[in-house]
Amino acid sequence: MKLLLTAVDGGKPPRSGTLQITVHVFDTNDNTPIFSKPLYKVKVEENVSNGTKIITLTASDLDEGINSDIVYYFVGNSNEKGSSIFAIDPYTGDVSVKGNVDYEENVGTELRVQAADQGQPPKTTHCKVLVEVVDINDNAPEIAITSLMSTVREDDKSGAAVALVMLSDKDGGKNGIVNCQISDTVPFKLQCSYKNHYSLVVDGPLDREKCSQYNISIVAMDEGTPALSIPSVVTVHFSDVKDNPPRYPERLINTDFKENSPVGGLIVSVSAYDPD
């Protein structure tokens, strides 16, 4: 600051003299740093690589020199998990990834950041950063199959339950919506009982004599992009039911034998079989 000082005497004519005064104002740390806004929101995809910058925080200070030099760091007990996943550059305010970002473990994190100038004593201010983790389809569906019986009677009617099928997927949103279907043509079908729970039921005539067991392939697929799927096989064994009469290989057998054959002599051997 520059001041011009003028001195005037009382003579006639008056005489005067001037003096320029330069005033240097020394800064004191009387201003608190201010963030550009008190709350920041940012989205980050899970499984993002370490070192990826997600946001830059900026605070300003009206002081000068070291009184306006700002250092950033995380504070608060709620940041214990967040600070293991994210890091902040103390001088630039850049927040970057340093750990595993996993939607299935944590869908969001609140970071509390403090900005402090380097005056004596320092003045501080705070802000919050809400980090929303965006789910990606990185988990395949899972299938759990529980058999209700060791074997299925070949005369069981349509609708008889054979096994219970339960689906699950750790992802969220459409990535976690799972559908399933039987990939083969078999006399069975899946019947939904409630969300992600199905019953494997008989859906046609069974015949142990034609096929004694079925290996049923069930495929579960989510609705993510790209979709992930997983197959699972359940083996169904059939138990026999007495539903077939004995049969001769031929309906008519012709044979010759000599006259005067001894009593008890063999004329012909006859056999029958039963497919049960």
TrEMBL record:
InterPro entries: Cadherin-like_dom (IPR002126), Cadherin-like_sf (IPR015919), Cadherin_CS (IPR020894), Protocadherin/Cadherin-CA (IPR050174). It is a single-pass membrane protein. It is found in: Membrane. The keyword tRNA-binding does not apply. Keywords: Calcium, Glycoprotein, Membrane, Repeat, Transmembrane, Transmembrane helix. Coiled coil: none annotated. SUPFAM superfamilies: Cadherin-like. This is Protocadherin alpha-3-like. The lineage of its organism: Eukaryota, Metazoa, Chordata, Craniata, Vertebrata. CDD domains: Cadherin_repeat. Pfam families: Cadherin (PF00028). Residues 3-35, 36-143, 144-248 form the Cadherin domain. It comes from the Eukaryota.
